[in-house]
Amino acid sequence: MNDALPMNEPATSGPWWRYPLVWLVIAGPAVVVLVSIATVWLALRTPEVLVSEDYYREGIEINRTLADKKLMPAQAGRNHAATPEGDVPVPKRGAQ
């Protein structure tokens, strides 16, 4: 009727390396270990240096550049959107 193995006989199993699921379980942690080693090697080989010795002065210069005249309309529009209508001063137009 049924050619399958009887219930009282265990199925024959092969060596553990013949099962693909075992390799899937082993591959995950193995890849993580290899990538971690590569990351440590890269971090030690090329240490990150300070971008600039005078970073504070350069930051101040960037802020001065942002306050330049060419950005005044954008800053006025931003301030106008954040300020109630009654507090907005009337813009002065230069005589041309």
Structure description:
The chain has 96 residues and is mostly helical. The chain has helices spanning 20-45, 55-66, 72-82. 51% of the residues lie in helices and 0% in strands. The N and C termini lie far apart (107 Å).
SSE run: HHH
Mean pLDDT: 78
Which residues sit in consecutive blocks of at least 5 with pLDDT less than 50?
Answer: none
Shape: elongated
Structural class: mainly alpha
Number of E strands: 0
Number of helices: 3
Helix content range: 40-55%
Estimate what percentage of residues fall within beta strands: under 5%
Through-space gap between termini = 107 Å
Largest sheet properties: none
Keywords:
96 residues, mainly alpha, 51% helix
Brief overview:
It holds the Pfam family FixH. Helices cover 51% and strands 0% of the residues. It has 96 residues and is mostly helical.
Any chance you could write out the topology, listing elements then pairs?
Blueprint: H1 20-45, H2 55-66, H3 72-82
